[in-house]
Amino acid sequence: MKSLSVDSTKFEVQLNLCQCLRKTSNYPLAQSLVLKLFTDNQKNQEVLDLMGNILIENKKIKEGIQIFKALSDEQPNNNSINIILGNFYIADFDSINAKTYYTKALDNDKNNPQLIKMIARLSE
């Protein structure tokens, strides 16, 4: 029987491993790996989304706000970054800043029903 060889330095393998670690709730290891992926792939949307989710699930809210605020300053029209930042502020019980970032995202995607609902809820 032949053995299977996997190149663990490949981006796709590391991303899949990170997703598996997240699904098994191994957040510290997933966070370590996703931060390494982020260092090498700062504009990759999958990495950004995964990193945001892992940091929230690992309760690294302040760290996530710091990282994604810097990203938002660099890429102010990136909807995903603004939505993730809004999610961090929701997790931090800061509805004012959450609404600000959701509104920035809505400005670029005026027909997004989820953003419209979130902003409406935050306006109540």
What can you see in these coordinates?
- The chain is mainly alpha-helical and about 120 residues long.
- Helix content is about 75%, strand content about 0%.
- The chain has 7 helices and no strands.
- It has helices at about 10-25, 25-40, 45-55, 60-75, 80-90, 95-110, 115-124.
- Helix 2 packs antiparallel against helix 3 (about 45-55) and helix 6 (about 95-110) packs antiparallel against helix 7 (about 115-124).
- The longest helix is centred in the N-terminal third of the chain and has 14 residues, at about 25-40.
- The termini are far apart.
Per-chain topology:
Layout: H1 11-23, H2 27-40, H3 45-57, H4 61-74, H5 79-91, H6 95-108, H7 113-123
What's the short story on this structure?
This protein is mainly α.
